[in-house]
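User: Design a sequence. Structure:
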């Protein structure tokens, strides 16, 4: 099944007038995914669809240091938000972290997805992962230092250590956490001091 057909299948599914719980179940069961060489699962495909929609969306600036975009179709955006934060949660947490840690070249585009995140559970998972990576920065053994990042990235082939740097991954998650703190109240989860890299 090719990429474009899968994206069209997901869009058709989301536009159907069925209960959102049924749509979530369909995604979780992986009904629109066939086995492929990359072994992407249903949630990965769903997030790829979401990213493609937001990437073609409208610029949305909460703060000039955090440029993001929003979907053109507000009804679709509302449905996607509910799926991510309610019906696909907590299964969606690892696929989200995988996207954020793999995206080493265009950190701003992580904010496209981060804008859609509102759930305390998901935000706390990002924060906890940030703390884990921050701790790994000071690990002397090279293999151990990159181990947690590589586990979350889940690349099939062994990648260069530079792509699994905990400092780099922590900085990307810090950027996401700063952005989330701008758009909603997260003081019950973390403060800006809690996400400082310098201590």
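Assistant: Done.
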């Amino acid at each position: 099944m090719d990429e474009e057909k899968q994206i069209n299948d997901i869009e058709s599914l989301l536009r159907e007038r069925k209960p959102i719980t049924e749509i979530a179940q369909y995604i979780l069961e992986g009904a629109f995914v066939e086995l492929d060489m990359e072994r992407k699962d249903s949630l990965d495909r769903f997030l790829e669809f979401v990213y493609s929609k937001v990437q073609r969306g409208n610029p949305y600036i909460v703060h000039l240091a955090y440029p993001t975009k929003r979907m053109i179709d507000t009804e679709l955006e509302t449905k996607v938000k509910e799926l991510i934060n309610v019906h696909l949660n907590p299964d969606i947490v690892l696929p989200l972290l995988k996207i954020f840690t793999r995206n080493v070249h265009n950190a701003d585009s992580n904010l496209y997805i981060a804008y859609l995140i509102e759930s305390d559970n998901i935000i706390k998972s990002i924060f906890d992962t940030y703390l884990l990576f921050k701790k790994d920065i000071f690990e002397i053994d090279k293999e151990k230092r990159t181990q947690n990042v590589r586990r979350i990235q889940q690349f099939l082939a062994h990648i260069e250590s530079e792509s699994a740097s905990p400092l780099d991954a922590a900085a990307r998650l810090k950027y996401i956490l700063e952005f989330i703190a701008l758009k909603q109240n997260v003081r019950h989860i973390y403060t800006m001091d809690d996400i400082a890299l310098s201590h």
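Strands lie at 58-61, 67-70. The longest strand covers residues 58-61.
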